[in-house]
Write a structure and sequence with these properties.
CATH architecture of the largest domain: 3-Layer(bba) Sandwich
Cofactor: FAD
Enzyme class: oxidoreductase
Bound molecules: flavin-adenine dinucleotide, NADP nicotinamide-adenine-dinucleotide phosphate
Pfam family, one: Pyr_redox_2
Radius of gyration: 23 Å
Oligomer: single chain
Catalytic activity: 2 reduced [2Fe-2S]-[ferredoxin] + NADP(+) + H(+) = 2 oxidized [2Fe-2S]-[ferredoxin] + NADPH
CATH class of the largest domain: Alpha Beta
Keywords: FAD, Flavoprotein, NADP, Oxidoreductase
């Protein structure tokens, strides 16, 4: 038996486990996660109003319920939990699928003002991540600026613009629902430093903004026209051309006095967050101009956009895991086809997959092929790895070291508690938002 530990139960961890058991009848897999709940960003990132994508959890569930796969939640690998150096003593191979847990920084003055948050923090809050800050976020805000034009920026813009009737049927935690229901934010500006043809959002997600009730999307045609590809989109790849068509449609639509406005802005580079009465009051942008090579240059002209809430949605970032090599430039673990590289040489028995391997890009499905590459490498090494003696079952050893994992029955108990909470609130499933209630439910795991 080849015994493998997969660290992280997001898409890359689940696809790694799936690929392992599909390709090798003699492998058993423990999927460890620091959280008592599985599925990574599918549970704690994918927007609550995207039920169809959320339902991918059912596919990942089937993996974790496989007879040769075991979920061990509430197991932090690293400081405060199982040292990363201990895992290779318990398993023949370890695959790190730990994602990219933090956010990139802008590095501009005022970034840390009250009212300025990373999109990561906002997403964690409305997704009920137990480590999320509970600030209310929208309290006292009328206007918001979202910096960045990727799909996460679209998600947070949409969540700020949706009404209670649309949010209530989701699994959003009650605290976030109450705060968003009371929100006075009517204006959201989503701002890109480059042009519309370089925006990272996808057309389906962009188009959805135009379907929100009582919300109008505005785009300034003069700002679009700064992009040479706007007037002549023929040379653009199809996805960008489709984005331009959607934006053109909005730019040509007359205003219609809706209760909420989403303004899509381009060629504005954030340079400073300005304070007003002890919190953020506006974002100062420098107007940029295309440099002809896909980049932009500053023009020395500035514009302040009012905002009592600023969400910086400029990408996620991997964090180093103690005991593993880390490339700070890419915030990933150096690897060769998924094999961890230590000082340029392959480290036997150590692998990576997902965002910690390739950086924070790509949709859920991208992690499937990524995991497959890693598993191919691992199984090529298997005949050497199994020569090492390992315990038949690492769980007693972990327990002896004070680790008490939340097993599958514990997770199922959390699911039941979330269904019961939803019923008591007159909603569907409602997520438990804190460690205490999650662990309380997990330990009450009698079926
Ligand atoms: C806000 C947001 C919304 C998204 N929405 C979509 C969408 O709608 N559709 C789509 O296709 N893609 C979406 N994506 C992209 C998709 O979520 C990612 O491609 C995918 O989740 C990356 O998978 P991963 O397994 O590498 O990382 P994650 O999903 O982040 O999983 C990592 C797991 O590792 C665990 N972990 C971390 N450190 C440790 C440790 N030290 N010990 C133990 N466990 C640890 C974490 O708790 C987590 O469960 C979204 C991404 C974001 C950020
Ligand atoms: N529904 C979905 O399918 C869905 C939903 C959410 C997320 N995802 C996926 O998850 C991944 C991560 O998404 P993401 O939105 O976090 O990242 P992203 O797609 O990389 O977008 C990041 C945005 O931030 C901008 N940016 C970066 N640094 C900046 C700076 N210093 N100043 C101003 N702007 C800056 C980027 O602009 P530049 O291009 O100019 O650098 C870009 O517009 C993506 O692959 C995404 O598709 C998918």
């Amino acid at each position: 038996m080849l015994r493998v530990a997969v660290v992280g139960s997001g898409p890359s961890g689940c696809y790694t486990a799936q690929s392992l058991v599909q390709q090798d009848p003699d492998v058993v897999v423990d999927v460890l996660d620091r959280l008592p709940c599985p599925y990574g960003l599918v549970r704690y990132g994918v927007a609550p109003d995207h039920e169809k994508i959320k339902s991918l959890q059912n596919n990942l569930r089937a993996v974790l319920e496989h007879e040769r796969v075991r979920f061990l939640g509430g197991v932090q690998v690293g400081p405060g939990g199982v040292p990363a150096t201990r895992l290779p003593e318990l398993y023949h191979a370890v695959v790190y699928c730990v994602g990219a847990a933090t956010d990139r920084h802008l590095g501009i003055p005022g970034e840390e003002l009250p009212g300025s948050w990373s999109a990561t923090e906002f997403v964690s809050w409305y997704s009920a991540h137990p480590d999320a800050a509970d600030d209310g976020f929208v309290l006292g805000a009328r206007s918001a600026v979202v910096i960045g034009v990727g799909n996460v920026a679209v998600d947070v813009t949409r969540m700020l613009s949706r009404g209670t009737a649309e949010l209530s049927p989701t699994d959003m935690p009650q605290g976030a629902l109450t705060a968003l229901a009371a929100s006075r934010v009517t204006d959201v500006s989503m701002v890109g430093r480059r042009g519309p043809s370089q925006a990272r959002f996808t057309t389906k997600e962009l188009r959805e903004l135009g379907t929100l009730p009582d919300t109008e999307v505005t785009v300034d045609p003069a700002e679009l026209a700064l992009d040479p590809a706007y007037t002549d989109p023929t040379g653009l790849p199809a996805p960008q051309r489709r984005n331009i068509e959607v934006l053109r449609g909005w730019a040509e639509t007359p205003p219609r006095n809706a209760g909420h406005r989403i303004r899509l802005r381009f060629f504005l580079r954030p340079v400073e967050l300005l304070a007003d009465a002890g919190r953020v009051g506006a974002v100062r942008f420098e107007r940029t101009a295309p440099d002809g090579q896909g980049g932009v240059t500053g023009t020395g002209r500035y514009e302040d956009v009012e905002a009592q809430l600023v969400l910086r949605s400029v990408g996620y970032r991997g964090v180093p895991l103690e005991g593993l090599p880390f490339d700070p430039a890419t915030a990933t673990v150096p690897h060769l086809a998924g094999r961890v590289l230590r000082e340029g040489s392959v480290a036997p028995g150590e692998y990576v997959a997902g965002w910690i391997k390739r950086g924070p890009t790509g949709v859920i499905g991208t992690n499937r092929s990524d995991a497959k590459e890693t598993v191919t490498s691992l199984l090529e090494d298997a005949s050497v790895l199994v020569r090492e003696e390992r315990p038949d079952d690492p769980l007693p050893a972990l327990r002896a070291e004070g680790i008490e994992p939340v097993e599958w029955t514990g997770w199922c108990a959390i699911e039941r508690a979330e269904a019961e909470l939803g019923t008591s609130l007159g909603r569907g499933v409602v997520k438990l938002p804190d460690w205490e209630s999650l662990l309380g439910a997990a330990h009450n795991s009698a079926p």
